[in-house]
């Protein structure tokens, strides 16, 4: 109980900044809620069979998250992103491909848990863990050498999977590493996120 109250206190200080500084010693007894927006960007590293065709990608996402003091330190979030994966040089050398890349739009819905702070004095640094369900629409471009006799074509796919990750947060800024599973695409993502409050109710 004491640990939960302490964690809530720190979140209230961070979330509501100066507006709730009067609650630094004691959280409010009423309902407090917040809606936040974050923007993240970072590299993507294909693994398993996906690494046979691509060895690098990049992505960006826009996220909305919500919490209130009744279920802190859990945040519910939804995000949409854009990712691109490029064909690897080893894949080109061992095939008739001249160009191969994937554009993907993933949508995630999940929950994030903020653990007790590791640092509290100079900065507030908290470990985090998250898990989400994933829907992904992707467009794959397949282009071949002119002398291969093959016709170029593109593919549109829809897949369902999941993502699980962990990282460190100063709340307004986070660094998160995640494993992302889709039936035909598995990769590790590393994202640097910046968060701002949209609405505060207390």
Question: What are its keywords?
Answer:
202 residues, Porin, eight-stranded antiparallel barrel
Protein topology:
Elements: H1 2-16, E1 33-46, E2 54-68, E3 74-87, H2 89-93, E4 97-114, E5 126-144, E6 153-169, E7 173-182, E8 185-201
Structural notes for this entry:
The protein has 202 residues and is mainly beta. It has one domain: Porin (Beta Barrel). The chain is 10% helix and 61% strand. Strand 1 (33-46) and strand 2 (54-68) form a beta hairpin. The longest helix is centred in the first third of the chain and has 15 residues, at 2-16.
Question: If you compute it from the alpha carbons, what radius of gyration comes out, rounded to the nearest whole angstrom?
Answer: 21 Å
Name the shape in a single word.
elongated
Number of helices: 2
How many strand segments?
A: 8
Count structural domains.
1
Q: Gap between N and C termini, in Å?
A: 22 Å
Strand content: over 45%
Largest sheet: 8 strands, antiparallel, barrel
Mean pLDDT: 84
Using the coordinates shown, work out and report the CATH topology: Porin
Low-confidence stretches: 16-26
Short description:
The protein has 202 residues and is mainly beta. It has 2 helices and 8 strands.
